[in-house]
Amino acid sequence: MQESLPYTIVIGLEVHVQLATRSKLFCGCSTAFGAEPNTQTCPLCIGMPGTLPVMNREAFGLSLRTAVALNCSIPRFTKWDRKQYFYPDLPKGYQISQFDLPLSENGYLQISDPKGAFEPKKIRIIRAHLEEDAGKSIHDEATGRGDSRIDLNRTGTPLLEIVSQPDIRSPLEAKAYLSELKLLLTYLGVSDCNMQEGSLRVDANINLHIDAADSAVSAAQRDAAMGDGNTTAPSGAMTTPVGKIATPIVEVKNMNSFRAVERALAFEASRQYEVFKETGLTINDPDGLKTTRGWDENAQATKPQRGKEDSADYRYFPDPDLVPVTTTAEQVDEIRESLGELPAALRTRIEETYAISAYDADVLVNQGRELVDYFIRLADRCGDAKAASNWVQQDVLRALKERQITIECFPVTPEMLSKLLRYIADGLLPTSRARDVLAEMIESGSSADASMKKLGIEAVDQGELEGLCRELLEKNPGIVQDAKEGKLKAVGALIGQAKQKNPNVNPAQVRELCLKLIEKM
After folding, report:
1. For a FRET experiment, which of 143, 421, 426, 520 has its CA 20 to 30 Å from that of 87?
2. What gap in Å lies between CA 114 and CA 364, rounded to an integer?
3. Lowest model confidence (mean pLDDT) among 186-200, 379-393, 449-463
4. Each residue of 120-173: pLDDT tens digit?
């Protein structure tokens, strides 16, 4: 269970996802990653006068696909707006985004923890809207003295911004939400979600709700908190419950992994509580404005960056160069029918159908649909879903990682591996020897039988094993006597002798069969 804290953490996440289109949102320039700086630009995306944008229909379709999968409402009518701000890497001086009529709103994403660290819950989605990306400023991070450079290759790349309600109550829940969202997006095929390449970026809004009875709360604050609750919370903030004091909201940026998000939020929650104990500053105070802080991975701390703009500062207005977009109910239904089985439903199905644990189902589904299909074929053919799950999670995934390949390139098919697992289940092959066989199968692409023959491994049938055990018992009367007197560990010496005579025997079966024969003697 989660650690007990003297406050409630309140978190809302803004996730920017680069959509998997070949061209930008309003022009035909490539979105491929890794090109030389400023080589994937045109007069439109660098803000030249006289240019006119044309919407990328594929980007809009991928956005709708995501919104439907996130259980969002899809309005019939949406429009484009200009968001005014002045950054060196924003050549037009504005960003084409969506303000008051986004393409989707009021959805949710279900999250859970397979180890039961928190109860399953729905995280509500405020909106998912489409916008263009800005460019990239490249600074002298080493000395801070060199010139800053601008790369406009990313300018105009289609982004889907997914904004959650402040329903998240811990850094662990935030990580679970992001993991589930990334998994959903990859299953949908709308983005590769590569954080190192900037395909998925996270900004986190966090503050604390502190109990009015806390020793750090002043008498005046306590009296105010016991009134009707905070009715003057900033736009987008959660109304403070009666009996609680809310700290100012901080937006945390510059987190390049989900683990970094988790660490940054844990640090920020602790920092805000210490600041509150020192200053008593609340969200309702004149100085309790929203601020932006950046996560410093090396220092493992957040650092102040700037005050946060309000929506009025951006001076939104409808883009006069782009027509609104309409979506019909028939289009939405068609998208919904095309989604297929999504991760949450797939996780439940394999957990219930194959009687594996929630943790095992979670691990398998998180590896992608192709690996789940491999597991299903293997479990169906070998008849032991638990064994199939264990071998896929341990041996198959290890081989994929070592060879840096995907399951589609794995040389051992489910049918080939199922035969090896049946040999183990039937007692014809010990697990340790089976792993040697699998290694040869991976190396040569041969069947289980061919690999066993090459390694000189032979399956040991029950009759042969029983004969070997009888021989060992006859030669070791002292061990037989010890076992009859209850000293069962003495039988362990027979296992070593059995392995010397036939290295292919299963130690567990030798022990079990010897004990059964001793009982009958």
Report:
1. 143
2. 12
3. 449-463
4. 999 999 999 999 999 998 877 666 677 889 999 999 999 999 999 999 999 999
CA pair distance 136, 121, nearest whole angstrom: 36
Number of helices (H), then strands (E), belonging to the chain: the values are 17, 16
Query: Measured between alpha carbons, how far is 266 from 469 in angstroms, rounded to an integer?
Result: 60
CA distance 182 to 66: 11
Q: Is the pLDDT of residue 9 over 50?
A: yes
pLDDT, one tens digit per residue, over 389-435 is 999 999 999 999 999 999 999 999 999 999 999 999 987 788 888 99
Judgement on whether residues 16 and 142 belong to the same structural domain of the protein: yes
pLDDT per residue over 308-341, tens digit each?
666 668 899 999 999 999 999 999 999 999 999 9
Q: Do 473 and 408 share a structural domain?
A: no
Tokens of 93: 């001086």
Q: How far apart are the first and last CA of the chain?
A: 53
Q: Which two tokens stand for residue 155?
A: 């300018």
DSSP structural state of residue 23: B
Cα 457 to Cα 433, 496, 502, 505: the distances in Å are: 8, 18, 10, 10
Residue 19: both structure tokens together: 């959509």
Q: Which of 317, 337, 357 is the last residue of a domain?
A: 337
Q: Which amino acid is at 45?
A: C
**What does the alpha-carbon distance between residue 19 and residue 415 come to, in Å, rounded to a whole number?**
36
Which of these three, 424, 455, 486, is where a domain ends?
455
Number of structural domains in the chain: 4
